[in-house]
Amino acid sequence: MAQYQFNSIGYIKSPYKQKFAIPRQPGLIAEACGSIELEADYADEGIVRGIEAFSHLWLVFVFHETADKGWSPLVRPPRLGGNTRKGVFATRATFRPNPIGLSVVKLDGVTRKNGKLQILISGLDLLDGTPILDIKPYLPYSDALPAANGGFADAAPETMMTVSMSENAEQFCQQQKHYPHLRTFIEKVLKQDPRPPYKKQRADIQHYGMTLYEFNIKWTVDGEHNHVTEIMQLP
Ligand code: SAM
């Protein structure tokens, strides 16, 4: 078996601080804004010359959070309710022989901050701190295949979930001048119902919490309704 060694060329800064609540694919929540912070060895401006002519990028990355958890040939896609098994190569599961992921994200710009070269991106489905192995421009003429068959995931997941917020939570969102889309972002994250399939069966009122950007968000789920009770700024 051939072996190859790769270096990470950079790391993701993402609003998603834990796996729970990250969408299952990129592009589903446009308000998820982050960046790729390039490693010093790759932080020469020349390395991104011409990149801003492209609207989207492919990111090749490591599923670093689960990389040491192994893999199995059959997986249970959450999309199918968590009970049906498919071959790992017929899924986008994180537990793979080589824990490598592939996501297309929107390119929002290139900047230098605190001496670091950053590529600004949005619509991501990546955990904060994800190591990036490679970046390639998205080529619509070749990469966009509208007639392609999407198998058991032929369209974006449908959701019946609704979202409301307490008055305090609404006010908190309105006050965040650096995050003008915070309310929409939280709403979209909750609408996709991030709970694992087995929790979706439960009839009782459930309490959850998550961190997005530097905010801790608490909410309850009652049937198909999410209610955000509290949002707090983390220290
Ligand atoms: N678009 C990618 C692909 O197809 O290879 C990722 C798809 S995978 C189903 C998306 C999930 O990966 C997210 O919902 C999140 O739970 C998980 N994820 C994102 N970044 C990760 C990381 N660095 N380590 C482990 N899991 C991660």
UniProtKB/TrEMBL annotation:
Domain TsaA-like: 6-147
SUPFAM superfamilies, sorted: YaeB-like
InterPro entries documented for this protein: TrmO-like_N (IPR023370), TrmO_C (IPR041369), UPF0066_cons_site (IPR023368), YaeB-like (IPR040372), YaeB-like_sf (IPR036413), YaeB_N_sf (IPR036414)
Entry keyword set: S-adenosyl-L-methionine
UniProt xrefs under CDD domains: UPF0066
Membership in a protein family: Belongs to the tRNA methyltransferase O family.
UniProt name for this protein: tRNA (N6-threonylcarbamoyladenosine(37)-N6)-methyltransferase TrmO
High-level lineage: Bacteria, Pseudomonadati, Pseudomonadota, Gammaproteobacteria, Alteromonadales
Gene name of the encoded protein: tsaA
